[in-house]
């Protein structure tokens, strides 16, 4: 942990932004860098039914470009001397975050919990809970 980076997954929400301050604090404490990861959902559609005006690939590229702009804006707001690395992946958020977390060079994951409960918790995948249960490194879940 003390020599490996902190992973901070973000969906650019206020909740995940709150967890960034914890990631920075932990990185400063251990004198390590931060890897920021954002996962773009893989859109799907059937061009044969003419449901989409653009192909799923074009839509995914547009979503990745928007995420890259948000990432650039976020980096512009950070005032830190830490080494910061950014990654934008495409696919299932849980699978992609776990792949980053278990890659071998991550010492800790700092992830926000959206705090869903009741029916919303039942209907939506709980990304933070799954990461905490399946990651091979320590996970700090921030509310």
From TrEMBL:
<dbReference type="Pfam" id="PF00582">
    <property type="entry name" value="Usp"/>
</dbReference>
<feature type="domain" description="UspA">
    <location>
        <begin position="4"/>
        <end position="143"/>
    </location>
</feature>
<dbReference type="InterPro" id="IPR006016">
    <property type="entry name" value="UspA"/>
</dbReference>
<protein>
    <submittedName>
        <fullName>Universal stress protein</fullName>
    </submittedName>
</protein>
<comment type="similarity">
    <text>Belongs to the universal stress protein A family.</text>
</comment>
<dbReference type="InterPro" id="IPR014729">
    <property type="entry name" value="Rossmann-like_a/b/a_fold"/>
</dbReference>
<dbReference type="InterPro" id="IPR006015">
    <property type="entry name" value="Universal_stress_UspA"/>
</dbReference>
């Amino acid at each position: 942990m003390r020599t490996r980076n902190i992973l901070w997954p973000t969906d650019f929400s206020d909740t995940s932004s709150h967890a960034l301050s914890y990631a920075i604090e932990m990185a400063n404490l251990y004198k390590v860098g931060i890897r920021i990861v954002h996962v773009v959902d893989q859109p799907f559609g059937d061009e044969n039914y003419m449901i989409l005006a653009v192909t799923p690939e074009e839509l995914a590229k547009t979503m990745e470009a928007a995420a890259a702009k948000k990432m650039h804006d976020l980096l512009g707001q950070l005032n830190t001397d830490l080494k910061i690395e950014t990654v934008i992946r495409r696919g299932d958020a849980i699978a992609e975050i776990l792949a980053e977390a278990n890659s071998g060079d991550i010492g800790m994951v700092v992830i926000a919990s959206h705090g869903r409960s009741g029916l919303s918790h039942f209907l939506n995948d709980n990304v933070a809970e799954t990461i905490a249960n399946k990651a091979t490194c320590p996970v700090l879940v921030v509310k």
